């Protein structure tokens, strides 16, 4: 796996049905191998931005560059080889087994999006199953799995794609505490550039090198968690009172929140 650099230049998007911008022109640059957390309240534009990063939405303004190349100037197959996405939506084809779903991650690397599975494909699929602790479930049908197990299957499929950039939309949704920690540990150890949206600001602080804070489709800051997730900025973004506390046992900072007085 070779991590890629990601640059977003003045990217914005407005849905045709409303004519109101969901994301105003936004810019940032993510160096190779870093983990970016996109955070903000509901409706901030997090998922919209992610969809432009994996070429589901075409930006109305600006450009998304991977290793300096515009993703809309590249063939779709090339983009699929470089960028993998794990979405909140669960797959609907429950007839497939875990192994078959993970194997779909190899599709962009096969000639004409088809062809037989080769020895290298098998090795990559096995490694992805092992990384997510799914080897014992390879022959189980998706319909028999819990929501958390399905989420892990989707991450394994993305890893089987051998991307340079991995995009995760709320990867800890539906996971219990143990599996949340396992996924976060995986994010920290993967030799990839990673962009993930997260609701939990303390999780984002613990796992991300950089944070992009959005509110109402506008960027309130980009940089390290300690720089961006200040008491004042978080309070403004979420309309709460945020306090930065220091936890002695773990020697880490921790945000706490309470409602503002009306």
Describe this structure in words.
- The structure is a single chain.
- With 262 residues, the protein is α/β, with parallel strands linked by helices.
- It folds into 2 domains: 6-229, Rossmann fold (3-Layer(aba) Sandwich); 230-262, no CATH class.
- 31% of the residues lie in helices and 27% in strands.
- The chain has 9 helices and 12 strands.
- It has helices at residues 46-53, 76-82, 98-103, 119-131, 147-160, 177-189, 201-207, 225-228, 231-238, and strands spanning 6-13, 23-30, 35-39, 61-66, 69-70, 83-86, 165-169, 193-197, 210-215, 218-223, 240-247, 252-259.
- It has a 6-stranded mixed sheet, sandwiched between helices. The protein has a 4-stranded antiparallel sheet with strand order 2-1-4-5, covered by helices on one side.
- α4 runs antiparallel to α5 (147-160).
- The protein is globular.
- The termini are far apart.
Describe the secondary-structure layout.
Layout: E1 6-13, E2 23-30, E3 35-39, H1 46-53, E4 61-66, E5 69-70, H2 76-82, E6 83-86, H3 98-103, H4 119-131, H5 147-160, E7 165-169, H6 177-189, E8 193-197, H7 201-207, E9 210-215, E10 218-223, H8 225-228, H9 231-238, E11 240-247, E12 252-259
Parallel strand pairs: 3-8, 3-9, 6-7, 7-8
Antiparallel strand pairs: 1-2, 1-4, 4-5, 9-10, 11-12
């Amino acid at each position: 796996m070779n991590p890629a650099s990601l640059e977003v230049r003045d990217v914005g998007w407005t849905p045709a049905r409303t004519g109101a911008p969901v994301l105003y022109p936004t810019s940032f640059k993510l160096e190779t191998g870093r983990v970016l957390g996109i955070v903000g309240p509901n409706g901030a534009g997090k998922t919209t931005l992610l969809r432009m990063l994996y070429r589901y939405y075409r930006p109305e303004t600006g450009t998304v560059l991977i290793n300096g190349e515009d993703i809309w100037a590249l063939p779709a197959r090339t983009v699929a080889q470089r960028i993998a996405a794990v979405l909140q939506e669960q797959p609907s084809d429950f007839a497939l087994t875990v192994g078959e779903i993970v194997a779909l991650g190899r599709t962009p690397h096969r000639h004409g999006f088809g062809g037989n599975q080769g020895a290298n494909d098998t090795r990559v699929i096995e490694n992805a199953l092992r990384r997510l602790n799914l080897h014992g479930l390879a022959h189980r049908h998706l319909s028999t799995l819990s929501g958390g197990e399905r989420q892990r299957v989707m991450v394994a499929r993305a890893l089987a794609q051998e991307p340079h950039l991995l995009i995760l939309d709320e990867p800890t949704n539906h996971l219990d505490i143990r599996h949340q920690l396992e996924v976060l540990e995986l994010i920290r150890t993967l030799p990839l550039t990673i962009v993930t949206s997260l609701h939990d600001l303390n999780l984002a602080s613990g796992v991300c090198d950089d944070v992009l804070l959005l509110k109402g489709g506008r960027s309130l800051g980009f940089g390290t968690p300690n720089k961006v997730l200040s008491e004042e900025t978080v309070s403004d973004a979420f309309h709460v009172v945020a306090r930065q506390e220091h936890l002695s046992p773990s020697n880490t900072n921790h945000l706490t929140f309470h409602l503002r007085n009306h």
